[in-house]
Amino acid sequence: MSERARIRSLAELGLTAQHGAEARVTGLAVDSRDVKEGYLFAALPGTRVHGAEFVGYALRMGAKAVLTDAEGARVAAEELDKFDVALVVTEDPRGALAMASALWFGSQPDVMVAVTGTNGKTSVASFTRQIWMAMGLSAVNLGTTGVEGAWDYPLKHTTPEPITLHRALALAVDEGVTHAAMEASSHGLAQRRLDGVRLAAAGFTNFTQDHLDYHATFEEYFAAKARLFDQVLAEDAPAVINMEDPRGPEMAAIAEEAGHAVLRVGHDEDYELAIVGQRFDATGQDLRFLHEGTPRQVRLGLIGGFQAENVMVAAGLCIASGADPVEVFNALPQLTTVRGRMQLAATRENGAAVFVDYAHTPDALATALQALRPHVMGRLVVVYGAGGDRDRGKRPLMGEAARDHADVRIVTDDNPRSEDPASIRAAILQADGEATEVGDRAEAILRGVDALGPGDALLIAGKGHETGQIVGDDVFPFDDVEQASVAVAALDGQMT
Ligand SMILES: CC(=O)N[C@H]1[C@@H](OP(=O)(O)OP(=O)(O)OC[C@H]2O[C@@H](n3ccc(=O)[nH]c3=O)[C@H](O)[C@@H]2O)O[C@H](CO)[C@@H](O)[C@@H]1O[C@H](C)C(=O)N[C@@H](C)C(=O)N[C@H](CCC(=O)O)C(=O)O
Ligand SMILES: Nc1ncnc2c1ncn2[C@@H]1O[C@H](COP(=O)(O)OP(=O)(O)OP(=O)(O)O)[C@@H](O)[C@H]1O
Ligand SMILES: N[C@H](CCC[C@H](N)C(=O)O)C(=O)O
Ligand SMILES: [Mg+2]
């Protein structure tokens, strides 16, 4: 796919400029610093500043068209007057950019599904892709961990802005990818980033507190997630809903109201995919479930009861988007854990296990700890913290979750970003006063591993697959999985 060779008119991109002006554009940019000769610059209202502030710069870089809202047109009026430029003004420039990006790049995998929810998106997207691949299909998942599967490609965001998203999808098609499962973050949904994606089905995992730094209220956050079902998903496409979440039935009602068939996942025998039995052991679980009333049993090499819900949502998405249910269920024993999600990172000589998990919300931390219990005979130790420049309200709630569900707790640093790490720890310690405070994450992990006796387990929570620690503007190499091995080697005298 040669982006450079392509030139499209505004009409071909579904855009209409003021006064009937037409322009042929050579590319799209959402950041003025990315504009090149002939580009369309989308000047979007931002959280910090209106993109229209940068219209002058974009025009000097050669932009031939500007897409913005009424306020943007007002802000940039003076600059716009100085250039011969096609101006597109719409109430919803983010939505228009999403559609224009889809048309610009022109292709997306034949079968695409999306999953939203506070926790479990990456896991469900990966499981969906793994099922498709086990069925012999060329598939990828796309989100927090980049594009993975039949084709790999790095991404900076869980749901990238539409230009990056559609570039990735078109490149995937060029690589022969026919199936893609993507994560729909609440930011992505609120900012219309995936409105141009053609979805065959969409899924919902759960809804709990996170991102209240961005969304004004809990309900606004829920409404952002609901957009996937009441606005993004095409009417004839099914929704797969985890009914075990307290907000699941409400999301199912929203989906039904919007005309979608709903495939329900949960523990009630009436649901289309019903979990009716789980037996846990040190390496995974046996799962018994009903598919439209027919019983089945599979072995999952996955730790944590909630992973069965994620697996069922993934299986539901594959079925809802056209896969044969029997082929889907036959693939389940092959599923492997997603990097940094309940991942067995190291084992001590005395048999004690060290797990790394990405739990960085109160609910995820409580869920991860509770999920480990049935796999562990002894005490549960946790090393955890909270990220800086993110929802402050969740810090004491994470403290409560650890206090209530772990026997031994060590509070440490996550990614402090621009904040004072000691004050983040203090906010957590307010709720978990008996925890030990060890700011240095490597030392905290060493102390956690040192505390393990036979039958105990350690959960290192918060950073999962991340390979760096963000302190101020610096990113220092740091990998929880690696540190777990280093700590075990240091204490037991060998690498695991
Ligand atoms: C908070 C947030 O979502 N911000 C997104 C938003 O930018 P903004 O509204 O903050 O932008 P701003 O700084 O006010 O600037 C306004 C506009 O001016 C433009 N600009 C700015 C400077 C300049 O020199 N020239 C220029 O053109 C910006 O590109 C932007 O379009 O719109 C931009 C363009 O679409 C996004 O790139 C940007 O994502 C930033 C990078 C970001 O960090 N987002 C994170 C929080 C995010 O989206 N995370 C989610 C959720 C992850 C999860 O679930 O945990 C994700 O999907 O990754
Ligand atoms: N179904 C679930 N219910 C509750 N907690 C879960 C569930 N699935 C995963 N988690 C917890 O959430 C953490 C993050 O999981 P995952 O990366 O799959 O979620 P995500 O929604 O993609 O997160 P992000 O918004 O950061 O991209 C896991 O490490 C686990 O602790
Ligand atoms: N996508 C999430 C990841 C958080 C990961 C955690 N390690 C942190 O830094 O808070 C966010 O940006 O809120
Ligand atoms: Mg994710």
UniProtKB/TrEMBL annotation:
Residues that hold UDP-N-acetyl-alpha-D-muramoyl-L-alanyl-D-glutamate according to the record: 32, 158-159, 185, 191, 193
Residues reported in the UniProt entry to bind ATP: 117-123
SUPFAM superfamilies the UniProt entry points to: MurD-like peptide ligases, catalytic domain, MurD-like peptide ligases, peptide-binding domain, MurE/MurF N-terminal domain
EC number: 6.3.2.13
Translocase in keyword set: no
Catalytic activities: UDP-N-acetyl-alpha-D-muramoyl-L-alanyl-D-glutamate + meso-2,6-diaminopimelate + ATP = UDP-N-acetyl-alpha-D-muramoyl-L-alanyl-gamma-D-glutamyl-meso-2,6-diaminopimelate + ADP + phosphate + H(+)
InterPro entries named in the record: Mur-like_cat_sf, Mur_ligase_C, Mur_ligase_C_dom_sf, Mur_ligase_cen, Mur_ligase_N, MurE/MurF_N, UDP-N-AcMur-Glu-dNH2Pim_ligase
Record note on modification: Carboxylation is probably crucial for Mg(2+) binding and, consequently, for the gamma-phosphate positioning of ATP.
Cofactor: Mg(2+)
A single GO cellular-component term on record: cytoplasm
Domain (Mur ligase central): residue spans on this chain: 115-317
Localization per Swiss-Prot or TrEMBL: Cytoplasm
GO biological process: one example: cell division
Gene Ontology molecular-function annotations: ATP binding; magnesium ion binding; UDP-N-acetylmuramoylalanyl-D-glutamate-2,6-diaminopimelate ligase activity
Family: Belongs to the MurCDEF family. MurE subfamily.
UniProt-listed PANTHER family: MUR LIGASE FAMILY MEMBER, UDP-N-ACETYLMURAMOYL-L-ALANYL-D-GLUTAMATE--2,6-DIAMINOPIMELATE LIGASE MURE HOMOLOG, CHLOROPLASTIC
Protein name as it appears in the record: UDP-N-acetylmuramoyl-L-alanyl-D-glutamate--2,6-diaminopimelate ligase
Species of the source: Vannielia litorea
Gene giving rise to this polypeptide: murE
